[in-house]
Each structure stands twice: as structure tokens, then as C-alpha cells.
Amino acid sequence: MQSSSAPTMTVRQRATFSPGAMTVFAVLAAVTISASSSAPTPLYHLYQEQIGLSPLLITIVFATYSMSLLVALLTVGSLSDYIGRRPVILAALILNVGAMVLFIIAGSATMLIAARAVQGFATGIATTTLGAAILDTNRTRGPLLNSITAFMGHTVGSLGAGVLITFAPAPTQLVYGLLMAVCVIGIVVLAAMPETGMNRPGALASLKPDVRVPQQARATFLRILPLNVAGWALGGFYLSLMPSVVRVATGFTSPLVGAAVVAALMITAVSTVISLRNQPPARLLSLGVWGLALGVMITLAGVELQRVELMLGGTVVAGIGFGSSFSGILRALLPLAGPDERAGLLATYYVVSFLSFSLPAVAAGILAPTFGLAHTAHIYGSVVILLSLISFVATRLSRTA
């Protein structure tokens, strides 16, 4: 016990702020990084007009972000356990500043892809490191805070970008300039934050991906796999193509409308995670199935009837399903793994989740030129509903058996 606490006390003496301040800093930094990742979503239609970005290219730009994020998670995701939290947080913030610079000067699809690649790697580094820092300094509320920071950031990023695009000048520069400024402030403030991790050997070995599902968790993992794919695939569609679908289906050309629909999914998800945090996993999974299925049905009805209020209402219901399934899946899976098995299980979860986040959206981008965005949304939504129901049936059959 003494060996683990002494290094922490030594670092705290050199720091200006308390560990509690580190909790606040890590939460705000995580929200900022997530906001940066969703800020391009309302801007895609401007890129379509300015550089001829097609729906397929939009989804490729988005998928580049997801793949880069996944690579970071699987390689340097646990690096801060060995070299400390602050150096890795610093690297994430610097990379995100670099991504914002690339976005500001982007004049082609190639530049946007490069910006998204850098941003994805920054987000992957930040996700695990900031999450670990939050848990280091607040064991009680840490798990809940880690569950909501990404959703909060996506809400702020998409809605804030929509407002700036609608009412402020230079939309493809101002949004990223403000986010870059926040990251620079974060870099400065980080110097006064306490180090909550410790140096220990094994940093190079930690770069090797550990992807596995423990034997005792495999049946549960397979049963909830379709629901997990459905939830993340829906999130990927919203963050890539949903503003374009809103514009095509309803005729509303204001970026704020599309951004509001995207933000509705995220803010409802985070509200659901918070309000239902004490519910058992089985109830959350059931709510996730029916929330996703019913919400997507209502949203597709809004697309068909060209009613943005129906799309918004369906998105709220789907957001309840998204938040419930996200929380329920992790709470159902993680207790099934031992302490030395959780990293591999989480790595597998991240692989499946981020592949689901990106690859179906790319498939939608491929279909869009042939079928149109509205019909593509119907096909995509039908698959999401089907996957949700497959998980429900598999779970019911398992309980019966």
C-alpha cells in the first residue's frame, strides 16, 4: 500500500491543483475531444458544395476517423498505465490541435481524410487515458462520468457547430478555431494538474493488442452482439449522413435543423444513461431493443412523410434505446470477466463497436448514389431494427432454455 501511494503524493506536492481538479479537467477535456469529433457533421453539406464531397466520400472521411480511433485504442490505449497520464493526455491534445489546423486549411477530400485520421488517433488516446484519470481521482462517480462524456461531447460538437454555421462567419474555419483554442488552454492548464498514474516497466509490451473474449462471457457476448452492432451503426449513420437525409427528406436547408436531430440522439442517450444507472442490465437491454426498434420506425415514418418533427421524435426514442443498450451491454459483459481478462474483453468490444460505427455507414454511402439518401435510410433503418430484434429473440430463447 505504501509503494503505490508514495509516488502519487510526491507528484501532488509539485502540482498546483488537487486531484479533484483533475477530475474536472479530465471530464472537460474528454467532452472537448468528443465535441471536436462531431463538429464536422453539420459541415458536410458545405464540403459537398465547396469541394464536391459525395455521400460515399463523407462516409469514407467518417470511417477514417473510426478506424484511426480503433488503432489507437488497440495499441496505445493502455500506455498511460506505464508512463503516466499527463504525457499521454498532452499528446492527445497536441494531436487534436493538429487535426483542427488540418480542418481549417482543408480544401480537398484528401485533406479531410488526413484531418480525420489525426483526430481519430487523438480521440483514441484520449478516450482511455482521460477515462483512467477520471477513475483515478473519483472512484465513486468515475464510471458514470465516463459513460456520459462522449455523448455530451457529441451533443456540444454537433449542436454548437450547427449554431455557428447558421449565425457566424467563416463556418469551415471558426468552428475548428474555437475548438483548437480550447485545446491550447487545456495544454496550458495540464501543466498544473497532478499526475495520477505511475511509471512502471512494460510500456512497449502494452502496445501489443489484446483482443479476446473469456470463455464464460462468450454466450452473453454473442447474444447481445446484434444489439451492439445496431446501436453503434445507428450512431455512425447519424454522425455521417443524417444531416443530409434531413435536408433531402424535409427540404430544411438550415444546418441547425440537421445538427439538432443529431444532438437529440446524443443528449437523449446521455440522459438515459444517467437516469437509468441503477436499473439491472436485463431491463436496460430490453429497453435498448425496443427503444432502437420503435425509434427507428418513427424516424423512418418522418422521412417518408417529410416531417422533421417526426424524425426528431423518433430520434429521441432511438436515443433512449441507444443509451440503454450502451449501458446495459457493458454492465452485462464486464462482470463476466476476471481482473486479468477485462482488458481483452474491452478491446474486443471496442473492435466490434467501432467497426459497426464505420463500416455500415460506408455501405450506406455506397448505396446512396443508386437508391437515394431517403431509400438508403429506409434500408439502413430496417437492418438496425432487425439486428435489435435478433438480440431480443436470442436472449428470450436463452432464458427459456
Please characterize this protein's 3D structure.
By secondary structure, the chain is mainly α. Helix content is 81%, strand content 0%. It has 16 helices and no strands. The chain has helices spanning 2-14, 19-38, 44-51, 55-75, 80-83, 85-105, 109-137, 142-167, 171-190, 218-240, 242-250, 255-275, 281-305, 308-333, 342-371, 373-400. Helix 6 runs antiparallel to helix 9 (171-190). It starts with a helix and ends with a helix.
Give the helix/strand layout:
Blueprint: H1 2-14, H2 19-38, H3 44-51, H4 55-75, H5 80-83, H6 85-105, H7 109-137, H8 142-167, H9 171-190, H10 218-240, H11 242-250, H12 255-275, H13 281-305, H14 308-333, H15 342-371, H16 373-400
Helix pairs in contact: 2-7, 2-8, 2-9, 4-7, 4-15, 6-7, 6-9, 7-8, 8-9, 8-12, 10-13, 10-14, 10-15, 10-16, 11-12, 11-13, 12-14, 13-14, 13-16, 15-16
Which tags fit this structure?
401 residues, mainly alpha, 16 helices
H and E string:
HHHHHHHHHHHHHHHH
- The helical percent reads over 70%
The count of helical stretches stands at 16
Helix vs. strand class: mainly alpha
Poorly predicted runs: 1-13
> Tell me, what's the shape?
globular
Distance between the termini: 46 Å
Rg measurement, Å: 21 Å
Overall pLDDT, averaged? 90
Largest β-sheet summary: none
The beta-strand count equals: 0
- What is the strand content? under 5%
